[in-house]
User: What shape does this take?
Amino acid sequence: MNNSEKKFLFNLLSAPSPTGFETEGQKVWVKYMKKYAQTVNNDAYGTAWATIKGKSTKSPVVMLEAHADEIGYIIKHIGKDGFLRLDRVGGSDAATGRGRRINLLGDKGPVKGIIGNTAIHLRKDSLGNEKAPKIYDLYVDIGASNPKEVEKLGLRVGHPAVYADEPEEFTKGKIVSRALDNRIGGFIIARVLSELSKMKTKCPST
Assistant: This one.
């Protein structure tokens, strides 16, 4: 993977695209594919596709597919204290969410927050064992003290959020990032189509 390909992959992984809000990631993918595909399209549902035309009009069309979303959260409630309550989008695990930084995607742009949970000595069951948190046990602190301050930041119920983790090289040749499932699939498809654009194959590819 050369520097240009790595930059494309990291841009794709960095774009916040929780389920139902995939537009930002698709913009990155579409911009890249416009350099190689004869046609690039998208629809109102957030789906994007590109087509490399083949030499034959009678050959079958080869389709490569990957989902572009990522797990995340959605604002479910805004408390009188300015804390936000969340619901899951996709398979977000409440047990691994506490203490994590997130970006809330509001009307005025991303708002930073951190997921909190009840103090460890207060969340034990009747036997004295620590309880794994449920999603309704978590809250998000964005530095607001009341709903009015939350509103001024451009946030309301229904806005999505994703973890604030950015892609980075873990060890040489390996990376760690949120949204690798399955943004890496979209990256591979883009690279395959870019190579097919140079080969002039018989089959159209989408």
